[in-house]
Design a protein that fits this description.
single chain; 8 strands
Amino acid sequence: VNRFLCEKRLESKYATAIMVRLKADGQVEMVNCGHVLPLLISGESSQWLKETNMPVGLLPGAKYEAARFQMKPGERLLLYTDGITEAMNATEEFFDDERLRQAALTNAPLDTIFRSLAEFCAGTPAADDCTVLEMTYAGGKAGDDTDPTLQKITR
């Protein structure tokens, strides 16, 4: 992807991207290319996964490194676009990371995120897409062909 974009010479155009592979045994491999930080949720606690690389399309020879970690059954990985955290209300205040985190810690995170976002923006139109993907690790073992639970809502 990086080489393709660089070869197109799109004059200072680049893209952020995030690629995640969640295996049946809970092993995660993630390559974050300048995208907003994913949120790992475990029960009532959470942490931002800060491993990142540069966006794609900036430097032809850029090297990208994968972060690897283990998810436990019941843990959730939240991926989202910056349209969520950068959504503004009428006073031009951002929805921000903390509001997203609080909504994500609930029992119905996707519904709560979008309801909280709508209440916060109170009719102010979105300036960007608002996409959220939640990956929940249900448990499994190596070689198991069970897929993790995926939910995606775009509004």
